[in-house]
Amino acid sequence: LQDYKTNYSKETMSDITNIVASIQVAVKKISKTVNRAGINNMYTAGAVGAGMVRKLDVYANETLIEAMESCKEVYVMASEESRDPIILRDDPGGYEVVFDPLDGSQNIDCNMSLGTIFGIYEKTRKQVGGMTSEKNVLKKGTKLVASGYAHYGAATVLVMTAGSGVHEFILDQDIGEFVLVRKRISVPRRAPIYSINESSSNEWDDVMLKYIEKIKKPQSATVKAKKSRYVGTMVADVHRSMLYGGLYLYPGTKKMPGGKVRLLYECNPIAFLMEQAGGKAFTIHPKTGYPARVMELQPVEVHQRIPFFCGSIEDMNDLEKAYLSAAKTAGGKKPQSKL
């Protein structure tokens, strides 16, 4: 990272390097624990509030918090596993780091792929509403200076961007270090596959129903049908799309029209990666009903959920046009320049 070419100042790049160094230490610990989860009885689930949290979820969250506590550049965190922002220091002039500590935790018991998603938002220049105010952490994705994910699969992979391309590293277990294996990942413009939970198809809107039917059964003989590949772990499905081209689709449903994927610490970091790799990410604006760039949406709460679509740019453009047409037909409000 010290040799990473970017438009950031040397000071900012040094800060990012230090933060990512702390994150990768935590990722190594999580990776090792994931591999031994069954042996160490880390599968057991327990009820917390309205949800189920497994021991491994708790461990991943605590490991990342511990890593950030020793990182002087970070002053606040937001995590899927923590209801409120985590204030690490009294100085509000540091960076904000956000996490989904263990993506795909519903797959823990059956030994399927898991992941960690992270984002690093730019330094807070002005405190708003007190140290513990949510307003201090509710930043647009355009304020990210770096993001990435760890994918715990056949190997532990770290994919990240600091605003100038996306690179992939693999953890070499023999030396205990991440080794660069792919520079400047470029997402193919057209996707051969799509990822969506089709068991929820009876809950989808008409646009998504028609789009999936169209890509599964194209009318033209010159257009190949897309194949469905769905792991159920966002990181795994997105990683495959990054490398081979693909669509990750998580629409709102009748039960949850506002979507299910979290904006601040899941959608924004993934959208940043996807755009840096030449892909695209959009959502449906909660006020206008029009398609909107994910990274320009202003969060209104830490755990805000949204519909989320990302992947190969030409396919994303097709889907976005379909949603735009539907919004115009329905008489949706024209989106403002400031979201």
Provide structural commentary.
- The protein is α+β, with helices and mostly antiparallel strands and 339 residues long.
- Helices cover 28% and strands 25% of the residues.
- It is built from six helices and 18 strands.
- The strands form four sheets. The chain has an eight-stranded mixed beta sheet with strand order 4-3-5-6-7-8-9-10, sandwiched between helices. A six-stranded mixed beta sheet has the order 12-11-13-18-15-16, with helices on both faces.
- α1 packs antiparallel against α2.
- It is globular, with a radius of gyration of 20 Å.
- The two termini are 33 Å apart.
- Residues 46-52 and 335-339 have low confidence and may be disordered.
Number of helices: 6
Instruction: Tell me the strand percentage band.
Output: 25-35%
* Rg from alpha-carbon coordinates: 20 Å
The count of strands amounts to 18
Relative helix content = 25-40%
Mean pLDDT, to the nearest integer, reads 88
Most strands sheet: 8 strands, mixed
Taking pLDDT < 50 over at least 5 consecutive residues as the criterion, the unreliable ranges are 46-52, 335-339
Order of helices and strands: HEEHEEEEEEEEEHEHEEHEEEEH
Structural class: alpha+beta
The termini sit apart by 33 Å
Describe the strand arrangement of the main beta sheet, using strand numbers: 4-3-5-6-7-8-9-10
